[in-house]
Design brief:
Blueprint lengths: L4 E3 L1 H11 L13 H11 L2 E2 L12 H7 L4 H9 L7 E6 L1 E6 L7 H8 L6 H9 L1 H14 L4 H4 L14 H11 L4 E6 L2 E5 L7 H4 L6 H16 L2 E2 H7 L4 H14 L3 E5 L6 E3 L12 E3 L10 H8 L20 E6 L2 E11 L4 E9 L6 H18 L3 E4 L6 H9 L1
Parallel strand pairs: 1-8, 13-14
Antiparallel strand pairs: 2-4, 3-4, 5-6, 7-9, 8-9, 10-11, 11-12, 12-13
Helix pairs in contact: 5-9, 6-9, 7-9, 11-12, 11-13, 12-13, 15-16
Length: 405
């Protein structure tokens, strides 16, 4: 095993920002399908979330890295048919969009799900005990084609909140986890399920099975490439691997020299990276980030990298919120320099900034103008004519002036 390299936190941060695709943003460049697909290939996984306070979260990481792009390009890549489709939905990091090339690397997870492992116990129990419902739902999809859960629901009583699913929805979720159905498209945000042979390329479905250990090693390598430098927990969290699997595969990769041990000053856990590191002198990116962006979704890692404590307050009662309902971190010149509570008010044609919270080092004049540019660009991307700052703090006057200038 190689002697560990030693990195400063600043070096680690630059590695991470470069690996995550923040080093090459060009506002003037037109975003074509190949560029979008190249970015998603680099990231490996884009988390899906239903909250639509600004725009559904899976659209935002691409905007943060590419700037103003046509969101129809992502929809085409995720839910169209034929050669234009380059992504599939599955449980990657939560519900996720991933490049088609990762599909064979997820088969072991589907097989575990079919055996009742690695999924919610209620869902596993339902899959075992209610094969009558499962087979009825599968037969309907085979006969009728792409179908949403609502069209299959036979329950008379009204559904309760959150996870009060019908039997048919439970059957669909079990079939999806087991790889018996996949997502053909979406109606609004509702998944439309179909059998894989009508959705995915035959070459992909006929790909020889990859055993669990090599598939998990490949996923860890993808994690390392996307994260730049990471602890074992960071690596496993990226594709939500089991700790025992992750630790065993990491040891194998270290033994083979495919990953290298790294010491990051100030981190209390060992870290790992790909060989042949190349660290940029600076990553001068400015971007508003989704709460579910892969740069910040692992909150402990975000604190280690950026000294930025970030928690989602969507489900916190309003009176107890510290920063706001839908808070976007603002990345600027290798720091997370501020956070903003933002809402797209489509009826009024405005992007509302309900709160601006600067971090202790604050935003200098260049930083506040970079934030204004990002907000104006986001508003244009969303088709909103105006950015409106509602924040009563005195510091928000600087943002209003920068927006006006």
């Amino acid at each position: 095993m190689s002697k560990p390299l030693t990195l400063s936190v600043n070096q680690a941060r630059r590695l991470v920002l470069s690996a995550q695709g923040f080093a090459g943003r060009s506002a003037a460049a037109e975003v074509k399908p190949a560029r979008l697909n190249q970015l998603i290939e680099r990231l490996g996984v884009v988390q899906i979330d239903s909250v639509n306070a600004v725009v559904r979260s899976h659209y935002l990481p691409l905007f943060s890295r590419l700037g103003n792009y046509d969101s129809a390009l992502l929809e085409q890549a995720a839910w169209s048919s034929g050669k234009r489709r380059t992504l599939f939905e599955y449980w990657g990091h939560e519900a996720s969009l991933m490049p088609l090339g990762l599909y064979p690397l997820m088969r072991w997870r589907m097989q575990r799900a079919a055996q009742g492992e690695g999924i919610y116990s209620q869902l596993a129990q339902f899959g075992r005990e209610r094969q009558d419902v499962v087979q009825r739902v599968l037969a309907h999809i085979r006969d009728q084609g792409a179908t949403g859960a609502g069209a299959l629901n036979t329950r008379v009583e009204r559904a309760g909140p959150w996870w009060d699913w019908s039997e048919e929805k439970l059957a669909l979720e079990w079939l999806f986890a087991a790889g018996e159905v996949t997502v053909a498209g979406r109606r609004g945000f509702e998944r439309l399920y179909d059998v894989p042979e009508r959705v995915l390329p035959s070459a992909l479905l006929n790909h020889p099975d990859i055993e669990e250990a090599p598939a998990q090693r490949q996923l860890l390598m993808r994690s390392a490439a996307a994260l730049g430098v990471a602890t074992e927990k960071d690596l496993r969290d990226y594709f939500r691997l089991d700790p025992r699997d992750s630790q065993a595969r990491l040891a194998e990769l270290l033994e083979a020299g495919e990953l290298l041990p790294v010491t990051v000053k100030g981190w209390d856990k060992p870290a790992y990276c790909l060989p042949n590191l190349s660290i940029a002198r600076a990553v001068n990116a400015s971007a508003l980030l989704s709460p579910f962006d892969s740069l910040v979704w692992e909150r402990a890692r975000t604190e280690r990298l950026f000294d930025f404590r970030y928690r989602l307050e969507i489900y916190t009662p309003q009176a107890k919120r510290v920063y706001g309902y839908y808070v976007l971190p603002f990345l600027h010149n290798e720091r997370i320099a501020a956070r903003l509570d933002v809402r797209a008010e489509r009826a009024s044609g405005r992007l509302h900034v309900h709160a601006l919270h600067e971090e202790p080092l604050g935003l200098d004049e260049e930083g506040i103008h970079a934030l204004a540019r990002n907000l104006l660009e986001m508003a244009r991307w969303l088709g909103l004519p105006e950015v409106w700052v509602n924040c009563p703090k005195a510091q928000s006057e600087r943002l209003r002036s920068a927006l006006a200038g």
